[in-house]
Amino acid sequence: MPKDPFPMPFEQPWEYEISFPRDPRGPKVVRAALYTMLTAHHLDPLIERAALLTSELTTNSVRYSDHPVCVRVRWEHPVLRVSVSDSNPELPAVLKPGAEDECGRGLFILEVFADRWGGFSLGKEVFGMGGKTVWFELGLGDPPPIPALAA
Q1: d(CA 22, CA 133)
Q2: Which residue, 24, 30, 45, 146, has most beta carbons within 10 Å?
Q3: Helices of type H across 5-149
Q4: Pick from 121, 105, 107, 115: which is nearest to 136 by CA?
């Protein structure tokens, strides 16, 4: 019988992927999963910014695409990268909304709170697929202390 694995070292890369239907509840589900992932991997200092930015990107995907959305969360010490892919090939534009505007703040928020971000279009029908991916990165300063279980 195989032994239970030890927790991964903090510096070791990992990746999770979540796909969800075009449903307005999807961003909330992804936020809950993101909180769980980042807490389990002791990345608490990144949780609030990651949740805010992921929420903005997934909400835009639900609003402006017609098919399921895919969120990929990747840790490669000391950088967390979150990528959101959907079926709409149009890359969004960064706007600086006025105080009275009710929408259009998503990428402005991304510009302010992400360490780096970008996106790319797959076109309308490239090899039977189309769509785009928008991503952001958050860097972590010092690593948290190693949990007793992993030591």
Answers
A1: 16
A2: 30
A3: 26-40, 47-64, 106-113
A4: 115
* Cis amide prior to 92 (ω within 30 degrees): no
Q: What is the DSSP string of 10-30?
A: TTS-EEEEEEE-S-TTHHHHH
Spatial CA neighbour of 86 closest among 137, 122, 54: 122
Q: Residue 80's closest CA among 7, 150, 13?
A: 13
Give the alpha-carbon dihedral of 123, 93, 115, 101, to 10 degrees: -140
Sheet holding 14-20, edge to edge: 14-20, 69-76, 79-86, 129-139, 116-126
Q: Are 92 and 145 in contact (CB under 8 A)?
A: no
pLDDT tens by residue, 89-112: 988 877 676 666 666 667 888 988
pLDDT at 108: 82
